[in-house]
Specification:
Layout (H helix, E strand, L loop, with lengths): L1 H30 L8 H36 L5 H28 L8 H23 L5
Helix pairs in contact: 1-2, 1-3, 1-4, 2-3, 3-4
């Protein structure tokens, strides 16, 4: 019963983290095409997103990590190929979160966002990564 409860909490945290990460990505991918003066409504949107990120997305990310590691230890899955693949993707998504957050913070403070192709591709990268993670978790293709 404890394992299923932790698994449910992990899934809830993952969904909150994924939603917040996708929000960052969509906003940054839209802002990279806009250069020059930062308009007041852009600053307001940026501040609201950063506030949501601080109070919801970041705690959800840490909760996902903590609960996921607990589940891996409890379930004896450490070292299995599918889990290593999942962890690699989650590390990448966590790093992308920091990059996107920094981009929104810079734009909110009045700095022009760069036109990096990575910013424009970030929503697709997140969607693809989350899909691969779901396939790995459900199918466990590299289970030893």
């Amino acid at each position: 019963m404890m394992y299923l409860s932790l698994k449910s909490l992990h899934l809830a945290a993952v969904l909150a983290f994924a939603g917040g990460l996708m929000t960052l990505a969509v906003v940054v991918s839209g802002w990279v095409r806009v250069y020059g003066v930062v308009l007041p409504h852009e600053k307001s949107i940026g501040r609201a997103i950063l506030r949501w990120d601080r109070y919801v997305t970041v705690p959800a990310m840490f909760g996902s990590w903590g609960l996921g590691l607990s589940l891996a230890v409890m379930g004896g899955g450490m070292g299995q190929g599918w889990l290593l693949g999942k962890v690699a993707l989650v590390v990448m998504l966590s790093g992308l979160h920091g990059v996107l957050r920094a981009a929104i913070k810079a734009r909110t403070e009045g700095y022009a966002a760069s036109g990096s192709v990575w910013y424009r591709a970030s929503p697709l990268l997140i969607t693809t990564s989350l899909t691969v993670i779901a396939v790995l978790v459900i199918m466990k293709p590299f289970d030893l």
